[in-house]
Design brief:
147 residues, mainly alpha, 7 helices, 70% helix, elongated
């Protein structure tokens, strides 16, 4: 196993851990403030444009489905399953694209620094994985041309 494969597998394992952390932890409970933020948190929900607000139940189902699919794709990437590269790219796009209208409409979020850090770290790792599976010798492992 080359050093590139070790780095790749370490990144995939790290993202599995981060995804499990996102599922398990309640990051809102980790927000520390000397003032009561209940009113402000209610305002963030009221003032932030959310095109999916009317579909709250469907959004929740979509989040669970996304988490399940992601938890299936990362092990497939780890073992170089050929179709996992395609599905990872799709999950990557579906995971980040729905936030774009919310971000572009403005507004604000109250989040813990730990949540910001883990989200940024996960995004960086996802980007590194995309580079490795499309622009390095690892792409041959996913094409099936190299064992």
């Amino acid at each position: 196993m080359s050093n590139l494969e070790k780095v790749f597998r370490t990144l995939v394992a790290a993202n599995i851990i981060l995804l499990c952390a996102f599922i398990y932890f309640d990051y809102d409970s980790m927000i520390v403030s000397s003032v009561d933020l209940t009113k402000v948190m209610a305002e963030t929900t009221y003032y932030n444009y959310d095109p999916f607000e009317d579909l709250a139940g469907i959004r929740w189902i979509g989040m669970v489905l996304y988490a399940v699919v992601a938890l299936l794709i990362y092990p497939a990437l780890f073992f170089y399953v050929p179709s996992s590269r395609f599905f990872f790219t799709g999950v990557f796009i579906l995971g980040y694209a729905p936030r774009l209208p919310i971000i572009m409409a403005g507004g604000f979020d109250i989040v813990s620094e730990l949540e910001v850090f883990t989200f940024a770290l996960g995004a960086a790792i996802d980007g590194a994985i995309l580079i490795l599976i499309y622009f390095t010798d690892l792409k041959e492992r996913f094409d099936g041309t190299r064992q």
